[in-house]
Write a structure and sequence with these properties.
about 130 residues; mainly alpha; Rossmann fold; two-stranded parallel ribbon; about 10% strand
Length: about 130
């Protein structure tokens, strides 16, 4: 883990922005999703023997995640753990984290409408800005 932390520190010191997400699904939800895939012929391609070998080792994976999180969660490269039993919520949470993290320190001011662009839009379509700007 030392090499990972050193690498991430080097990236951070160089101004590289990155976001570390761990998307976690509960054991029960994983079971439900796998069964749904098995029951739907058009989703069966997503399931293989390797899935079952890995699921059988879930505790070892969780222990490894915990160890990794503990040893690689730093102030310059923090982990964001997202519960993903609700896929929509997880996706939105992940997107929000990415936007917040990558947007930190970025100035975002609305662009003024170029008067020549406004004139061209008026000439072609009769369009005028609603607030006069």
């Amino acid at each position: 883990y030392r090499e990972i932390n050193e690498f991430e520190r080097t990236l951070s010191d160089a101004g590289v922005r990155f976001v570390k997400l761990l998307v976690h699904v509960s054991e029960e939800e994983q079971r439900k999703r796998m069964i749904r895939r098995l029951e739907k012929p058009h989703k069966r391609y997503k399931v293989g023997l390797e899935d079952f070998r890995n699921i059988a080792k879930r505790k070892q994976y969780i222990d490894a995640y915990d160890d990794m999180l503990e040893k690689t969660d730093t102030d310059y490269a923090p982990w964001h753990v997202i519960a993903s039993d609700d896929k929509r919520h997880a996706r939105l949470a992940g997107l929000k984290i990415i936007v917040d993290e990558l947007g930190r320190g970025v100035k975002s001011t609305p662009q003024e409408l170029d008067p020549q662009v406004a004139a061209a839009a008026f000439k072609l379509w009769g369009w005028k800005p609603k607030n006069g700007k």
